[in-house]
């Protein structure tokens, strides 16, 4: 009798796959070089930061919340990493040690920021939408305050971020890490009590609480992990560009959320499969890469993304319930 | 009293998910009279009101208004025919003024060139209020600044206004669903005066309440419903509280129904203790001990504080005063999972909202409260989740097509059994049952009573808030009676010495 549910899940998977195939065909017809190996490699390696951030966002949306500050969090982490590196680059410590310390520091910062957002949402009962909107403003400005222009990483340290270029078969190292994170989260979501709690909270938070699920703790954990993923995405962006930019993450907020929704996760929470987020991520990065290849103006690209998000949400929203109230 | 029938309902039947809420009930209303409608929770009073006003259709049966067939599809249609309803929950918009509320949705009538003529609206509002005898309510006042009785009158005025205009003879029928539940004594008196003014003008009223004294005071005729059936229909002169009560309850405690043969004597061991427990504005000075193997019943009307006490025990709310001692240890909970760690779990009253997660399968619902215990090294075993579900489906005879069926597809009684399965699987030894048989039909009720007896036989302790008084007395070893946030009495309820309902009611109200 679970038909209803599984049909919907299959639909999300097949639909996303069909969209991917269509997009590839369209872009190939428009511009042959879309399908050549260098662009495909490029596309795959570019996808990693987005995928990591979407991995963090999926559970946030599964519990029925949202985090609009991920892009800003990514920006601020991005400049933090590089400014830490610049601070310590002339010390006596080994290069790899400097890198390790700055990475860990940035990740810890992002986790704490996620916990604070979670606490504000859970304890002060501020809707996650508005709390994260406020944090978006805070982190955007913080990034600019730390460094209002891009900083490049000195050549002598390049050796420490070469790992970004390593490939395992056709897949770049970063993408492999992103896949591993998604698979790890998939196991957590489906096989642990934390994961069951996440789905239960999204489906009916009140019942979850009354069943003895530690709702507050789970929600805060989810936001903390989301912060972690945003910072990891920022580190990947830094490694790819060998520099930082205070606005690098801004466009990611919309891309991350649209990837998750395109992957079939319901915005009201409680249903979705993080593996399908992979497909959503590819839809987004194919559109982005394809539009670059066929040289569509950057501002038009943003228009297209806005429309894509609206369509994705319109398709995925379950309007069947009469008590469905939109605010 | 004129003898023209204004409204009548014949052989109304209604069922929800296989549970019969109404089984061929009748109701007649004459012009200018107040008809009282009484019955226990789940007797079908509110269901009939909703059918009359058009919120939901009946399964079968006919309704007639002024002799003509009447079948509203929504409340607006009923309003247009001259029937209006004041709902149990207040439906005024508290941030708007009285006048704005009265004409809510009808602002067009006061528009001049696209702008509302407020002066005209308030003048009209004053006229409407005086129509129902409330000249002293200022229509410019915000509803939030009014007391509940006055708000109730504004609602009635609104309903009268909407329906009176529509009905052909200017006579309307007003349905009042538990209008006094939020009022104090003087406010009730005031409301009754206003109702009498209404009927003096030829309007009719159906007055639904569970407070028998009030029904006796205001009504001309009284209908008693029981388990969805008509259990009596009498003139007020022939009725007393005792007669009404007997009709409502129908039978004295039936030993088989409540499995009294399985009622056991509790052990000495105290598992839960409340010492001078209090919650600001809800209850205070609550003292009692719950023993191992005991069923402790809480009786009291809505608002007596019994629900809030449950919230404190299950960890949903923190007490403001006093001590909560669980298994000899003083504790304080801020969330239900902490209580669950101490082996306390509640079966909540609102099954759909708090008890089950409708979009999840039966097996996932059963595993909600003990997922942690089904895991090995942090990983939950799917096999154990489904084995557990199969086991409980068999033991509780849950009617389902399989463990993977979504809970939303089960009937009310079976959904409730899923909740019981979840609580039993959690191996909690103190179980709080907050209206465990609400919205469950008679057959399933009896099974649930059997389940509760088995739980206690296994050494669990139970706090029971009965859906009916009869149930509370029938199942409990001991009952605590509450009124206005205070414990007003404690009675033993041994198998052969169950207290009478009348004696408990005298302490409840």
TrEMBL record, chain B:
Top-level taxonomic group: Bacteria
Keyword Ion transport in record: no
InterPro entries given in the database record: AAA+_ATPase, ABC_carbohydrate_import_ATPase, ABC_transporter-like_ATP-bd, ABC_transporter-like_CS, P-loop_NTPase
Keyword flag Transcription regulation: no
Keywords: ATP-binding, Cell membrane, Membrane, Nucleotide-binding, Repeat, Sugar transport, Translocase, Transport
Any one GO molecular-function label of the UniProt entry: ATP hydrolysis activity
Family annotation (PANTHER family): CARBOHYDRATE TRANSPORT ATP-BINDING PROTEIN MG119-RELATED (PTHR43790), D-ALLOSE IMPORT ATP-BINDING PROTEIN ALSA-RELATED (PTHR43790:SF3)
Protein name in UniProt: Monosaccharide ABC transporter ATP-binding protein (CUT2 family)
Organism: Muricomes intestini
């Amino acid at each position: 009798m679970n038909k209803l549910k599984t049909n919907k899940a299959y639909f999300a998977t097949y639909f996303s796959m069909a969209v991917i195939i269509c997009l590839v065909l369209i872009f190939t017809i428009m511009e042959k070089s879309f399908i050549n190996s260098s662009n495909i490699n490029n596309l795959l390696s570019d996808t990693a930061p987005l995928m990591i951030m979407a991995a963090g966002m999926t559970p946030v949306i599964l519990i029925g919340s949202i985090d609009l500050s991920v892009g800003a969090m990514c920006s601020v982490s991005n400049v933090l990493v590089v400014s830490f590196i610049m601070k310590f680059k002339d010390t006596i410590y080994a290069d790899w040690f400097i890198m390790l310390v700055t990475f860990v520091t940035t990740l810890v910062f992002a986790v704490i920021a996620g916990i604070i957002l979670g606490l504000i949402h859970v304890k002060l009962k501020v809707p996650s939408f508005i709390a994260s909107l406020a944090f978006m403003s805070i982190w955007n400005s913080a990034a600019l305050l730390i460094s209002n222009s891009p900083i490049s990483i000195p050549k002598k340290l390049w050796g420490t971020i070469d790992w970004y270029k390593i490939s395992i078969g056709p897949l770049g190292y970063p993408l492999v890490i992103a896949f591993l994170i998604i698979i790890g989260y998939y196991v957590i979501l489906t096989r642990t009590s934390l994961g069951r709690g996440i789905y239960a909270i999204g489906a009916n938070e009140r019942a979850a609480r009354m069943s003895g699920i530690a709702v507050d703790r789970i929600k805060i954990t989810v936001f903390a992990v989301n912060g972690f993923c945003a910072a990891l995405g920022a580190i990947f962006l830094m490694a790819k560009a060998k520099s930082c930019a205070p606005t690098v993450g801004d466009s990611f907020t919309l891309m991350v959320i649209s990837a998750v929704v395109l992957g079939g996760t319901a915005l009201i929470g409680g249903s979705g499969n993080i593996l399908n987020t992979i497909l959503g991520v590819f839809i987004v990065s194919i559109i982005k890469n394809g539009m670059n290849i066929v040289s569509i103006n950057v501002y038009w690209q943003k228009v297209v993304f806005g429309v894509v998000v609206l369509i994705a949400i319109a398709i995925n929203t379950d309007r069947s319930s009469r008590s469905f109230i939109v605010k | 009293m004129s003898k023209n029938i204004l409204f009548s309902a014949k052989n109304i039947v209604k069922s929800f998910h296989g549970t019969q809420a109404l089984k061929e009930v009748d109701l007649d209303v004459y012009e200018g009279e107040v008809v009282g409608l009484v019955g226990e929770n789940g007797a079908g009073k509110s269901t009939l009101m909703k059918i009359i006003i058009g919120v939901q259709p009946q399964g079968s049966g006919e309704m007639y208004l002024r002799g003509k067939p009447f079948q509203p599809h929504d409340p607006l249609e009923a309003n247009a025919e001259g029937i209006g309803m004041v709902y149990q929950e207040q439906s005024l918009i508290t941030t708007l003024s009285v006048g704005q509320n009265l004409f809510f949705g009808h602002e067009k009538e006061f528009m001049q060139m696209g702008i509302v003529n407020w002066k005209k609206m308030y003048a009209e509002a004053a006229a409407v209020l005086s129509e129902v005898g409330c000249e002293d309510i200022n229509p410019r006042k915000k509803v939030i600044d009014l007391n509940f009785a006055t708000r109730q009158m504004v609602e009635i005025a609104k309903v009268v206004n909407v329906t009176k205009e529509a009905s052909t003879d200017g006579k309307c029928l007003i349905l009042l669903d538990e209008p006094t539940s939020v009022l104090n004594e003087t406010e009730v008196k005031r409301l009754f005066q206003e109702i009498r003014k209404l009927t003096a003008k030829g309007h009719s009223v159906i007055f639904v309440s569970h407070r028998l004294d009030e029904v006796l005071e205001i009504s001309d005729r009284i209908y008693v419903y029981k388990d969805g059936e008509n259990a009596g229909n009498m003139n007020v002169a022939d009725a007393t509280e005792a007669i009404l009560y007997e009709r409502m309850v129908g039978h004295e405690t039936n030993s088989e129904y409540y499995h009294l043969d399985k009622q056991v004597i509790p052990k000495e061991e105290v598992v839960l203790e409340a010492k001078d427990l209090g919650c600001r504005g809800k209850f205070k000075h609550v003292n009692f001990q719950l023993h191992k193997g005991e069923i402790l019943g809480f009786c009291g009307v809505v608002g007596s504080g019994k629900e809030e006490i449950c919230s404190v025990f299950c960890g949903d709310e923190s007490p403001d005063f006093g001590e909560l001692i669980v298994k000899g240890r003083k504790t304080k909970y801020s969330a239900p999972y902490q209580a669950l760690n101490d082996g306390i779990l509640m079966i909540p009253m609102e099954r759909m909202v708090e008890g089950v997660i409708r979009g999840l399968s039966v097996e996932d619902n059963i595993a909600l409260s003990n997922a942690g215990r089904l895991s090995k090294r942090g990983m939950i075993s799917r096999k154990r989740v489904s084995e557990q579900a199969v086991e409980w489906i068999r033991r509780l005879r849950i009617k389902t097509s399989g463990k993977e069926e979504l809970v939303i597809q089960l009937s009310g009684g079976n959904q409730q059994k899923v909740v019981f399965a979840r609580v039993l699987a959690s191996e909690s030894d103190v179980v709080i049952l907050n209206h465990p048989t609400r919205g469950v039909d008679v057959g399933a009720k009896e099974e649930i009573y059997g389940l509760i007896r088995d739980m206690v036989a296994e050494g669990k302790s139970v706090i029971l808030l009965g859906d009916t008084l009869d149930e509370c007395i029938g199942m409990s070893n001991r009952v605590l009676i509450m009124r206005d946030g205070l414990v007003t009495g404690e009675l033993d309820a041994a198998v052969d010495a169950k207290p009478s309902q009348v004696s408990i009611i005298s302490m409840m109200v």
